[in-house]
Specification:
With about 130 residues, the protein is mostly beta strands. About 5% of the residues lie in helices and about 45% in strands.
């Protein structure tokens, strides 16, 4: 079972940047597709970005495209989310997810669904002050 630990959240002013990290316990980390999601109070968990096994392909929600960048370092068993030009509405708890159920032919819709991911971290809080 994969254990995921997010870090890097905090309080930042609007327009600022943060880089989140998600460290995985699994030695076979490269076998997992990874995703970043967020959840604001009283709202559903929503997709932000996903990355394939070796980082060849990345996928983004329209709301963060051009501002957020997902990457991974399989040697460090870590996936990252670089967040720039942060807005107040980006305030949420940010989660990373891992799955082995996606294939190279999986659609963007599948990759953006929380139900496609089997393992989750406990999240890291990001607060953007306006």
């Amino acid at each position: 079972q994969v254990q995921l630990v997010e870090s890097g959240g905090g309080l930042v002013q609007a327009g600022g940047s943060l880089k989140l990290s998600c460290a995985a316990s699994e030695r076979t980390f490269s076998l997992y597709n990874m995703g970043w999601f967020r959840q604001a109070p009283g709202k559903e968990r929503t997709f932000l970005a996903a990355i394939t096994w070796y980082g060849t392909y990345t996928y983004y929600a329209d709301s963060v495209k051009g501002r957020f960048t997902i990457s991974r370092d399989n040697a460090k068993n870590t996936v990252y989310l670089q967040m720039n030009s942060l807005k107040h509405e980006d305030t949420a708890v940010y989660y990373c997810g891992a799955t082995r159920r996606l294939s190279s032919g999986s659609s963007h819709s599948s990759r953006s669904s929380p139900g496609s991911y089997d393992y989750w971290g406990r999240g890291t809080q990001v607060t953007v002050s306006s």
